[in-house]
Amino acid sequence: MHARASAKLTKLAGRFKCEVFLTRNSRRVNAKSIMGVMMLAAGLGSTVELETDGVDEEHATEAITELINDKFGEGQ
User: Fold this and answer.
1) How far apart are the first and last CA of the chain?
2) Which ranges carry the HPr domain (predicted)?
3) What does each C-alpha distance from 39 to 8, 11, 31, 46, 62 come to in angstroms?
């Protein structure tokens, strides 16, 4: 995932009170950390697991899933 997409994801994740994690190939990172998200090296076609835990976890899951499915608003 490149810097712009990582920034969009971490900014969105930061809006929620719940914990937000991404996992790829057994590497689990805090999705509110841009460095962590970039270190996943999740390029196009990668499979990433989203995990949320907390008071607004359902809203976070929906919003982040929508961002990912929208290809981070970049249409690629």
Assistant:
1) 12
2) 1-75
3) 15, 16, 11, 13, 23
Share of the chain above pLDDT 90, in %: 80
Which sequence spans correspond to the domains of the chain? 3-55
Is a pLDDT exceeding 80 seen at residue 48?
yes
* Residue 2, pLDDT above cutoff 90: no
Number of helical (H) and strand (E) elements in the chain, helices listed first = 3, 3
Residue numbers annotated as active site: 2
Q: Top-level CATH class of 3-55?
A: alpha beta
User: What is the reported pTM?
Assistant: 0.89
